[in-house]
Structure formats: C-alpha cells, structure tokens
Amino acid sequence: MAQLEVDLVAADRKVWSGPARQVSAPAADGEIGILQGHSPLLAVLRAGRVRITSAEGTHVEAVITGGFISVDSDTVTIVADSVEMAGAAV
C-alpha cells in the first residue's frame, strides 16, 4: 500500500513523524484531506484539529493554533505555531 511521509512540527521542534495513510487539516478555507498521490499544495492553516492515520492504522490527533501545510511527492509537512497532543502541550 502506498504511503505518505508526514512531519508535524511546532515552531520550535518536531512533534510527530512517520508513514501515514491519510491526513486531514483545517485549511483557512475549509477542511482538507490528503491521500497518497495528492497534487502539490501549499495552504495556510487556521486553528483546529490535525488528524493523521498512521500506516499501521493508529490515529494521531493534534490541536493546532495555525500554521501551514505543504504537500509534494507524497511528503506532507505541517508547521504549526503551537501543537497540543493527547491532553499535553507539545
């Protein structure tokens, strides 16, 4: 099965990285979903939830306060102003 390579980073550190099946994020003009083969994209993110389904099928969820998402060649990079995961600030 084809995969995405995902990096979720806060302004000062990497929060999560790994292979994934899909990513959804709160783009400025609506929710965006990313699957393998997505066309290149650069978008501004608003505050909301980023959801990642890992290659193993586990779900990763983070609350962000804004940032941007970049997609190119099945590589997804999410840079957020701040990230909170699993009830703890990260």
Automatic annotation (TrEMBL):
Signal peptide: none annotated. One of its GO terms (molecular function) is ATP binding. The keyword GTP-binding does not apply. Keywords: ATP synthesis, Cell membrane, CF(1), Hydrogen ion transport, Ion transport, Membrane, Transport. It is found in: Cell membrane. GO terms for cellular component: plasma membrane; proton-transporting ATP synthase complex. The keyword Membrane applies. Residues 4-82 form the ATP synthase F1 complex delta/epsilon subunit N-terminal domain. It holds the Pfam family ATP-synt_DE_N. It is a peripheral membrane protein. Its main location: membrane. NCBIfam families: ATP_synt_epsi, PRK13442.1. Belongs to the ATPase epsilon chain family. Produces ATP from ADP in the presence of a proton gradient across the membrane. F-type ATPases have 2 components, CF(1) - the catalytic core - and CF(0) - the membrane proton channel. CF(1) has five subunits: alpha(3), beta(3), gamma(1), delta(1), epsilon(1). CF(0) has three main subunits: a, b and c. HAMAP family: ATP_synth_epsil_bac. This is ATP synthase epsilon chain. It comes from Sanguibacter antarcticus. The gene is atpC.
